[in-house]
Specification:
Elements: E1 8-15, H1 19-32, H2 39-60, E2 68-76, E3 79-86, H3 94-98, H4 114-121, E4 124-130, E5 134-142, H5 146-150
The structure holds adenosine-5'-triphosphate and magnesium ion.
Residues 51, 55-56, 59-60, 86, 88-91, 97, 102-105, 110-115, 135 line the site of adenosine-5'-triphosphate.
């Protein structure tokens, strides 16, 4: 049962520490659980949160824990809007950065698939970035819900 389909939002900020990535994933999952997502939908949302938060920490802030990551989650009817932002180094060439397999940190064994995963797992994806001015990714996904599957 859906507890509520009215508009709602939450926002949270945390230090750019890798241990906070799991917290962010769980916090977002808990917030959207009222939409009664399927395991697949929940798993997709947790994965994109993880990819975007990890990007902010390791690329945006070069793992400097004094950086702050902000997450905003909105619910409008059955659509989840996810915004993940940092005030870090920003991205010089966004089109290049979004290419599958492009990574600026091959030495850290990154695979360059984070943005591609976000684009594929969500219905809408948009990244904004300014060199020296931080990065913001904004994504939307419609949740079908388990209830819809049973009807
Ligand atoms: N928040 C960010 N701040 C600064 N640069 C970023 C940010 N997010 C992504 N980038 C840049 O975009 C590139 C591509 O990001 P993407 O997540 O697709 O790959 P990756 O993080 O390098 O590898 P993977 O996500 O597969 O571990 C990064 O290598 C980095 O140069
Ligand atoms: Mg990444």
């Amino acid at each position: 049962m859906r507890e509520s389909t009215g508009n709602n939002f939450m926002s949270l900020q945390f230090a750019a520490k890798s241990e906070n990535e799991a917290f962010a994933r769980v916090a977002v999952a808990a917030f959207i659980s009222r939409l009664d997502p399927t395991m697949d939908e929940l798993s997709d949302l947790k994965t994109v949160v993880s990819e975007a938060v990890t990007n902010s920490i390791i690329h945006g802030y070069d793992s400097d824990p004094s950086g702050v990551v902000t997450i905003k989650v909105g619910i409008e009817m059955d659509v989840v809007t996810l915004v993940i932002e940092d005030a870090g180094r920003g991205i010089e060439d966004l089109e290049l950065a979004k290419q599958p397999l492009y990574t600026s940190k091959p030495e850290l064994e990154r695979s360059g698939m984070g943005f591609t995963i976000m684009e594929n797992f969500m219905d809408e994806f948009e990244a904004l970035s300014e060199p020296g001015g931080g990065t913001s990714v904004r994504m939307k996904k419609r949740i079908e819900s388990k209830k819809a599957l049973y009807n």
